[in-house]
Amino acid sequence: SFQLTDITEAPFPVDAVQPHWFHTLQVRKLRVHRSRSNSDPLGGKSYAQGLQWRSGLRFGTASSYLNLEKLGEGSYATVYKGISRINGHLVALKVIKMKAEEGVPFTAIREASLLKGLKHANIVLLHDIIQTRETLTFVFEYVQTDLGQYMIQHPGGLHPHNVKLFLFQLLRGLAYIHHQQILHRDLKPQNLLISYLGELKLADFGLARAKSIPSHTYSSEVVTLWYRPPDVLLGATDYSTALDIWGAGCIFIEMLQGSPAFPGISDVTEQLEKIWTVLGIPTEETWPGVTELPNYKTEWFLPCKPQRLRTIWKRLGEVPKAEDMTSKLLQCFPRDRLSADSALHHEYFSDIPSQLFQLLDAASIFQVPGVRLETEVRDIFNPFRKDRSAAGLNKCW
């Protein structure tokens, strides 16, 4: 039987399976190594012609999947591009090595238990789980890239129309998991997968938690520093869905501006300083209870007053209602932040087709006629396509 890492005995030549990455709008060859489980559609190639499917193959067994190439390696898992020998679909294989004395990592158990119950167009789909003595493998749907890589490919900020579609899908996915009392707790561009159509899918639920029962025991060591809200930075452990909303607001700005909203470098103190410089230092009047949080020490920070957001992030002033949307997502006091449901009905989305608000959970927004991504202005693969005047940038590319 085939193991996940056994390529040499594949019933078709391995060198015939060339990595063929898909750009959002056009087919391109990428020379960029990516650190997560993203992939491409078949791109017109028929692997079925060279691969003989065996009868009797079933889900839950390693022999049902063939490893094609290694995509990346993390602290507790290695991700491979693979193909299902059951139906020929490309998949992402997240292989978790189990230590004899520790067994299955708790984060893997939590991720599996949560994802098995999530069925939504904007949540990455878990197809299968394979367990052996040495490994636990998650078999995910195969998605082309992630938002972080997409923004690298299109520096300087994305097309405002595309930003709107991405944010709508992000909030749609968050509304779905929040209705089920699940917090993602690790929103960042690298954990948002983007398909060749432009479908955005929440991924990497290793830090996610179910909040079905009120708890004050959550860890404050969640969310990558740049996307961590001030309440968590200040040591709050009784957070709720507002945790994810702050991350969505940071990602919204990053998509428009082309750079992170609050790029702290060293520690929590510097990250808070970045936030206070824009939003001002909170007080008991603006944030009841803030002075009681473990990390609140006024002597650490110079007095700061709130700034107008469009003066800090210029592109907010160029897109109707974008500044107001941002101000409601990036509220220091968690209870003042919009919910995902409320954000979906903000005026910022007033010009999108009404059918998008009536879709079933499993339906992609791109099923609605006329909904599609626009061509990005800047493209590192073809820098002269639309922005011929950006000579300085072209030299960098």
Automatic annotation (TrEMBL):
<keyword id="KW-0418">Kinase</keyword>
<keyword id="KW-0808">Transferase</keyword>
<dbReference type="GO" id="GO:0005829">
    <property type="term" value="C:cytosol"/>
</dbReference>
<comment type="similarity">
    <text>Belongs to the protein kinase superfamily. CMGC Ser/Thr protein kinase family. CDC2/CDKX subfamily.</text>
</comment>
<dbReference type="InterPro" id="IPR017441">
    <property type="entry name" value="Protein_kinase_ATP_BS"/>
</dbReference>
<keyword id="KW-0723">Serine/threonine-protein kinase</keyword>
<dbReference type="InterPro" id="IPR011009">
    <property type="entry name" value="Kinase-like_dom_sf"/>
</dbReference>
<dbReference type="Pfam" id="PF00069">
    <property type="entry name" value="Pkinase"/>
</dbReference>
<keyword id="KW-0547">Nucleotide-binding</keyword>
<protein>
    <recommendedName>
        <fullName>cyclin-dependent kinase</fullName>
        <ecNumber>2.7.11.22</ecNumber>
    </recommendedName>
</protein>
<dbReference type="GO" id="GO:0030332">
    <property type="term" value="F:cyclin binding"/>
</dbReference>
<feature type="binding site">
    <location>
        <position position="94"/>
    </location>
    <ligand>
        <name>ATP</name>
    </ligand>
</feature>
<dbReference type="InterPro" id="IPR000719">
    <property type="entry name" value="Prot_kinase_dom"/>
</dbReference>
<feature type="domain" description="Protein kinase">
    <location>
        <begin position="65"/>
        <end position="349"/>
    </location>
</feature>
<dbReference type="InterPro" id="IPR008271">
    <property type="entry name" value="Ser/Thr_kinase_AS"/>
</dbReference>
<dbReference type="GO" id="GO:0005524">
    <property type="term" value="F:ATP binding"/>
</dbReference>
<keyword id="KW-0067">ATP-binding</keyword>
<dbReference type="InterPro" id="IPR050108">
    <property type="entry name" value="CDK"/>
</dbReference>
<dbReference type="GO" id="GO:0005634">
    <property type="term" value="C:nucleus"/>
</dbReference>
<dbReference type="GO" id="GO:0004693">
    <property type="term" value="F:cyclin-dependent protein serine/threonine kinase activity"/>
</dbReference>
